[in-house]
Amino acid sequence: MTRQNYTFTSESVSEGHPDKVCDRISDAVLDAFLAEDAHSRVGCETFATTDRVVIGGEVRGPANVIQRVEDIARECVRDIGYEQEGFHWANLKVDSYLHAQSEDIAQGVDASDNKDEGAGDQGIMFGYAVNETPELMPAPIQYAHAILRRLAEVRKSGAEPTLGPDAKSQLSVRYENGKPVGVTSIVLSTQHLDESMSSDDVRTVVEPYIRDVLPEGWVTGETEWHVNPTGKFVIGGPDGDAGLTGRKIIVDTYGGAAPHGGGAFSGKDPTKVDRSAAYAARYLAKNVVAAGLADRCTLQLAYAIGVARPLSIYVDTHGTGQVEEEAIERAAAQIMDLTPRGIREHLGLNKPIFERTAAYGHFGRQPDEQGGFSWEKTDLIDALKRAI
User: Fold this and answer.
1) How far apart are CA 249 and CA 266, in angstroms?
2) Considering 274, 316, 325, 376, which one is annotated as catalytic?
3) Which of 23, 51, 98, 196 sits CB 3.0–4.6 Å from 266 for a disulfide?
4) Quick check: is 212 catalytic?
5) CA distance readout (Å), 11 to 139, 225, 252
């Protein structure tokens, strides 16, 4: 029987976290290719350390984009807000080692006269949704993201000029009868530009914003606060700790509340099912919950490199389903083409929409007019009900 009373913790990291700087650059390079050629193939990795950014990977697309990679990286760092001595957008050294995609991989993925476009790699992908927040996301990760987004807004607007780009949040959320009801502890570490600030000074700045984004009544006199618990945090970003694309996969997804297949997202074009099928799985799971077919849904897809159709579809509604899981599995295969081409076309993924996903989570976001976060729509409700 599923536990009903417990405390669960998730963390988030800001756009200025070293790994997120790298995710941002990798996705910005991807977007630049897709803006020029919607069928570009990109597998871009970024490494960042003190005053240096190194970019590498396999690509197939317009050559002029490769020539712009240094400018793309600098613009990302500038927009994030790094102008410190050890990591400044204008002064850092950018090395690019992007090269042509392997022909061996291309032949398995490309469509031909007798085969459809295959998956870009083998792997398993999970989608998840739960009805404990309006976004149908787990509360701990959703509100951990919200705290950092709010702090980024007031930093960039100039309302809080003492805050720096690098930050991490962590929330421990108390559940009663299976529903989130309060926060037992709040952890926030944020870079600050005034070296004289103490932990108490930083808390004075950030606490009103944290309280503002959390549901009313969740913070009580018993809530533990740990703001900059190590003390001074002036040197941030890749100057303080090296960053690498794809190291924050749990932050990117469900904060540990659901399984993760293991593949990272950033820097990968949508033929790579690590990314596109994870989006499709979230899309299906969210529509299952939005349709009232379950309060909670985990959906797994499995692929083989070069093979178009998924090897398996698995659904678990964790004892909350209104219909049999097998019926949802059959319906999912019926209402959506889950081949790489089908996913890309259904969700409109061959567009420059990925840089905006690089921080504050790939899920639980609002679909936008340019096609971003299309996997967050709940437009399959009627089709699911008809199929079941």
Assistant:
1) 10
2) 274
3) 23
4) no
5) 11, 15, 10
CB-based contact 344:280 (threshold 8 Å): no
> What pairs with residue 21 in β-bridges?
none
For residue 142, what are the CA distances in angstroms to 130, 132, 255? Answer: 12, 10, 8
Active site residue 58: yes
Q: Mean pLDDT over residues 74-85, rounded?
A: 97
- From the list 62, 104, 81, the residue with the least C-alpha distance to 14 is 81
Q: Which of 41, 74, 192, 268 is catalytic?
A: 268
Annotated catalytic, 93? Answer: no
Q: Which amino acid is at 89?
A: W
User: Looking at residue 260, what is its pLDDT?
Assistant: 95
pLDDT digits (tens, 9 = 90+) for 305-329: 888 999 999 999 999 999 999 999 9
CA dist., res. 50 & res. 121, Å (int):
33
- Residue 194 falls in the annotated catalytic set: no
In this structure, are residues 211 and 173 in contact, taking their beta carbons and an 8 Å threshold? no
Q: Give the integer Cα–Cα distance in Å for 259 and 229.
A: 30
Does 272 participate in catalysis according to the annotation?
yes
What are the structure tokens assigned to 25, written together? 């650059």
Is 70 exceeded by the pLDDT of residue 16? yes
- For the cut 90, the answer to whether the pLDDT of residue 344 exceeds it is yes
- Which burial class, exposed, middle or buried, applies to 318 when counting CB atoms under 10 A from its CB (0-12, 13-18, 19+)? middle
Look up 351 and say whether it is catalytic: no
* Cα angle 212, 216, 219; round to 5: 80
- Mean pLDDT for the stretch of residues 343-371: 97
- Which two tokens mark 217? 């009544």
Please pick, among 75, 241, 329, 337, the residue that the annotation labels catalytic. Answer: 241
Phi then psi dihedrals of residue 352, to 5 deg: -80, 75
Q: How many CA atoms does the CB half-sphere of 381 hold within 13 Å?
A: 11
pTM beyond cutoff 0.90: yes
Q: Mean pLDDT, to the nearest integer, of 106-130?
A: 73
